[in-house]
Amino acid sequence: MGFFSELNGRVVGGPSILAADFAHLADEVRRAQAGGAEVVHFDAMDNHFVPNLTVGPVVARSLVAAIDIPVDAHLMVENPDNLIPMFVEAGVASISVQPEAVTHLHRTLKMIKGGGVEAGVALNPTTPPEAIEWAVPYLDYVLVMSVDPGFGGQKFIEEMVEKVRRVRELYGLPVQVDGGITAETAPLMVEAGAQVLIAGSAVYKTGDPAGEMRRILEAGRAAHRG
Ligand SMILES: O=C(CO)[C@@H](O)[C@H](O)COP(=O)(O)O
Ligand SMILES: [Co+2]
């Protein structure tokens, strides 16, 4: 049970908080919800794995309490094991880790699942889908990064469309996509098999978060092969 395991073939999406106004996070999420967002993507960065620093479990806890859609935590941190129990305690619905930042991935995924939340891996653009073959029994979703993690507003990496197709073919797990997702790139990703569309800049940097969220979801759904 959970957000990813209950998608039932639907294409869904939500905003990445990275591009939102952090002084009004819950309101920013509600703006995207007005455009059909069903999940919010919470980017945690540590200035070690990525050269940027954002927020952690304390802010996640407040956000969970203030909104009524699931919070999906994307941990771009080295050694996430210390943080996982705190994110679980904060009430997030799912946690993805970057396998490039984790030494004992099996242990880390078991820790996430043991906390009763859904587990994912977020693959850097050059990390091959085959790298997670033996992690699949412990996964509820795969996040294909279509930019290098660390910043919003970067250029979409086109080859990631084929990577989505490959991940879907290999594992059949729900694929989430993150990085440079817009109403133009979303259909390419959905046609290749992506089901969960995450967008930061495209939603929040245009002045119409609800309208842009809706546009991305409609464009994605129009490309869905069912
Ligand atoms: O995880 C990340 C970046 O590391 C993403 O969640 C970005 O925040 C997406 O931002 P846009 O590329 O949509 O602006
Ligand atoms: Co992210």
Automatic annotation (TrEMBL):
Keywords: Carbohydrate metabolism, Cobalt, Isomerase, Manganese, Metal-binding, Zinc
Family: Belongs to the ribulose-phosphate 3-epimerase family.
Catalytic activity: D-ribulose 5-phosphate = D-xylulose 5-phosphate
Pathway where it operates: Carbohydrate degradation
Keyword Metal-binding: yes
EC numbers: 5.1.3.1
PROSITE patterns registered for this protein in UniProt: RIBUL_P_3_EPIMER_2 (PS01086)
Cofactor: Zn(2+); Fe(2+); a divalent metal cation; Mn(2+)
BP terms from Gene Ontology: pentose catabolic process; pentose-phosphate shunt
SUPFAM superfamilies listed in its UniProt record: Ribulose-phoshate binding barrel (SSF51366)
Pfam families in the record: Ribul_P_3_epim
Binding site for a divalent metal cation: H41, D43, H74, D178
Source species: Rubrobacter taiwanensis
Protein name per UniProt: Ribulose-phosphate 3-epimerase
